[in-house]
Write a structure and sequence with these properties.
- The chain is an alpha/beta fold.
- It has 18 helices and 15 strands.
- The strands form 4 sheets. It has a 6-stranded parallel β-sheet with strand order 3-2-1-11-12-7, with helices on both faces. The chain has a 4-stranded antiparallel β-sheet with strand order 5-4-6-8, with no helix packed on it. A 3-stranded mixed β-sheet has the order 14-13-15.
- Helix 2 packs across helix 3, helix 5 packs antiparallel against helix 6 and helix 13 packs antiparallel against helix 14.
- The chain starts with a strand and ends in a 25-residue tail after the last helix.
- 42% of the residues are buried.
- Bound molecules: 5'-O-[(L-methionyl)-sulphamoyl]adenosine (MSP).
- 5'-O-[(L-methionyl)-sulphamoyl]adenosine binds next to strand 1, helix 1 and strand 11.
C-alpha cells in the first residue's frame, strides 16, 4: 500500500511565503511519520505555473512566463531543501508530461459529454483565479481575500457540467471522513445545497496556459490544469505514463492538505472532474487555517509579512517547525507573535526537553565514568507506564493528523520526567554509598525517557531528534523499526556518553 500526501501546487507569482511553508511542513511531518511506521510514501509538492496571474507577473518583470517560472520554481525547490522537506515528487505544471495528462483527461471528460461551449460573464479575481459569486453584495467589488479589484469578464468559454454531479457530490460529502475539520465540512455542505453551477474550464486571450486541443485560441483554465498535477506528479517524467497507469503508481491520493480558501476546488470541483473522467477520488481533504501576524492578516500593503527565509536564518528549521506544528491546531487559524514564539521555543525545547537531556547526561557522565549506568533490572518502574501511555496517545494523535496534540504529548511527557527527576533528587541520594543502585535506576530512567522523546520527535523535528540520539551515545541508524525502537529499555547500559552540550540554543527576544 502506498500512502500519497500532497501540498497544494503553489503559484509561482512569488517565492514561498510563510503560509506555503506551513502547509509543506505539516505534510513533511505526516510523510515522515508514515515512513517511520513502515508505509511506502509518496509526498508530492510542486508549482502551479499557468494562468493570468503568472503571465502578468512575468510581464511586469520583463521576463517570458517560462523564464519567470523557471526562476521561481527553482527558488521553491531550493527553499524546500533548506527547510529539510522530504518530498518525493516535485511537479511543474509547465512540464510536458503534465500537458499530456491534462489533454488525456480533457478527452475523457469530453467523452462523458461533460464539456460544452457557453458564455462566461462575471467578476473575476486574478489573485484567486476564480469567478466570485454575487459580488454585488460586496459594495467595493473587491476580492475579500486579496483586497484587489475584481475584473469583469465576458467570454465564450468551454464549460464543465458540474451540475450533473450534484447528487454524487452530496453523497460524497455524507462521508464524515472526506473533509476535515468538521466546521469546514459543514461550510462545503451548505454551499453544495445551494445548487452546483457548471464552471468554465477554458480561457480565450490567455496565452500562458495549455492549449485546448482542436479549439483555437482557448487555453485551459488554470485550476482545470493544476489539479491534475497531483496525478502527473506520479509519472517520473516517463513518456509512457498515462491516466491509465495512475493507479499502478499509487493513485488515489490519501490526503490533499490545503488551506481553507481552496477547499471548494478540492472537495467539489476536483472530485466531480475525476468522476467524469472515471478516475478514483482522493480519500481525504484537510483544510488548514490561516496564519496571521500579531493578530493581523499578513499582507504586503500592511508591511507585516514574515519572510520565511529570514525566520529560517534567524531561528533555524527546528524552532519554526515546533512553533507551527505544536502551537497551531490543524484546521484552526494561528497567530505568529514574536514574543510567544521565543517563549515557546525557550520553554519547550531549551528548558524542558534540552535541559532534561543535559542534566541527565551530565550526571551520568560524572557519576558513572562517562557512561550510562549499569545495574540489575528493577521490576517496579513507574516511568514505564507513563511512557507506554504517552506512546499510545501519540500514535493515536498522529493517525488522526492531530499533530499539535502529538507534539504536546511529547512536551507533557518531558515535563513529567523532569518532575520525576526533581522529586527523586539523585544529587542528594548519591551522597550515600548504599543509594547507588537507586541512583543508577533513576538516571537510567531519565536517559531512556530522553531516548523515547528523541524518537517521538523524529517526524516533527528530525534534526533535533538526531542531535539527542547522538548525545545519548547512540547511532541514529538502526536495524530495528522505529516502533521496535520505541519499546522501553533500548538504551544500552554501561555505554559511553559524549561530552554534554546543549542541543538547542535559547533564543533572545529582540
Ligand atoms: N495554485 C493554487 C493551488 C492549486 S492546487 C492544485 C493556490 N496556490 S497559492 O500559492 O495561492 O496558495 C497555496 C496555499 O497557501 C493555499 O493552500 C493557501 O490556503 C495557503 N495560504 C495562503 N496564505 C496563507 C496564510 N496566510 N496562512 C496559511 N496558509 C495560507 O492556491
Amino acid at each position: 500500500m502506498t500512502f500519497i500526501i500532497t501540498t497544494p501546487l503553489y503559484y509561482v507569482n512569488d517565492k514561498p511565503h510563510l503560509g506555503s511553508v506551513y502547509t509543506t511542513i505539516i505534510c513533511d511531518s505526516i510523510a515522515r511519520y508514515k515512513r517511520l511506521i513502515g508505509e511506502k510514501v509518496i509526498f508530492i509538492t510542486g508549482v502551479d505555473e499557468h494562468g493570468l496571474k503568472i503571465q502578468r507577473t512575468a510581464l511586469e518583470k520583463g521576463l517570458s512566463p517560462q523564464d519567470h517560472c523557471d526562476e521561481i520554481s527553482s527558488i521553491f525547490k531550493d527553499n524546500w531543501n533548506k527547510w529539510d522537506i522530504s518530498y518525493d515528487k516535485f511537479i511543474r505544471t509547465s512540464s510536458k508530461v503534465h500537458e499530456k495528462i491534462v489533454n488525456e483527461f480533457f478527452k475523457r471528460v469530453q467523452d462523458s459529454n461533460d464539456i460544452y461551449m457557453g458564455e462566461q460573464k462575471g467578476w473575476y479575481c486574478v489573485g484567486c483565479e476564480e469567478f466570485k459569486d454575487n459580488p454585488d453584495n460586496n459594495s467595493s467589488l473587491q476580492c475579500p481575500i486579496h483586497k484587489k479589484n475584481l475584473e469583469w469578464k465576458n467570454e465564450r468559454n468551454l464549460f464543465f457540467r458540474l451540475s450533473k454531479y450534484q447528487k454524487e457530490i452530496e453523497k460524497l460529502l455524507d462521508d464524515q471522513e472526506f473533509i476535515e475539520p468538521k466546521e469546514r465540512r459543514n461550510e462545503i455542505i451548505q454551499f453544495v445545497k445551494r445548487g452546483l453551477k457548471d464552471f468554465s474550464i477554458s480561457r480565450t486571450n490567455l496565452e500562458w496556459g495549455i492549449s485546448v486541443p482542436n479549439i483555437e485560441r482557448h487555453t485551459f483554465y488554470v485550476w482545470f490544469d493544476a489539479l491534475l498535477g497531483y496525478i502527473s506528479a506520479l509519472s517520473d517524467e516517463e513518456d509512457s505514463f498515462s491516466l491509465e497507469h495512475s493507479s499502478k503508481f499509487g493513485w488515489p491520493a490519501d490526503v490533499h492538505l490545503i488551506g481553507k480558501d481552496i477547499l471548494r476546488f478540492h472537495s467539489i470541483y476536483w472530485p466531480a472532474m475525476l468522476m467524469s473522467a472515471g478516475i478514483k477520488l482522493p480519500k481525504k481533504i484537510i483544510g488548514h487555517g490561516f496564519l496571521t501576524r500579531e493578530g493581523q492578516k499578513m499582507g504586503k500593503s500592511l508591511g507585516n509579512v514574515l519572510d520565511p527565509e529570514q525566520l529560517l536564518t534567524k531561528y533555524g528549521t527546528e524552532s519554526v517547525r515546533w512553533f507551527l506544528l505544536k502551537d497551531i491546531s490543524l484546521g484552526s487559524d494561528g497567530d505568529f507573535q514574536d514574543r510567544r514564539f521565543v517563549d515557546i521555543i525557550n520553554n519547550d525545547l531549551a528548558n524542558t526537553i534540552g535541559n532534561l537531556l543535559n542534566r541527565s547526561t551530565s550526571m551520568s557522565r560524572k557519576w558513572f565514568e562517562n557512561k550510562t549506568p549499569s545495574f540489575f533490572d528493577d521490576n517496579e518502574n513507574t516511568i514505564l507506564k507513563i511512557t507506554e501511555k504517552t506512546i499510545a496517545n501519540y500514535l493515536k494523535y498522529f493517525e488522526e493528523y492531530n499533530l499539535d496534540s502529538a507534539a504536546n504529548e511529547i512536551l507533557n511527557y518531558s515535563i513529567k520526567i523532569n518532575l520525576y527527576l526533581n522529586k527523586k533528587e539523585p544529587w542528594s541520594l548519591i551522597k550515600k554509598e548504599n543509594n547507588i543502585q537507586e541512583v543508577k535506576i533513576i538516571i537510567y530512567n531519565v536517559l531512556e525517557a530522553s531516548r523515547i522523546i528523541a524518537l517521538l520527535l523524529k517526524p516533527l523535528l528530525p534534526e533535533l531528534s538526531i542531535k539527542i540520539i547522538h548525545q545519548l551515545g547512540l547511532n541514529d541508524k538502526s536495524n530495528k523499526s522505529w516502533k521496535e525502537e520505541l519499546s522501553w529499555g533500548g538504551l544500552p547500559k554501561n555505554n559511553y556518553l559524549p561530552i554534554s552540550k546543549p542541543v538547542i540554543t535559547k533564543l533572545e527576544y529582540e
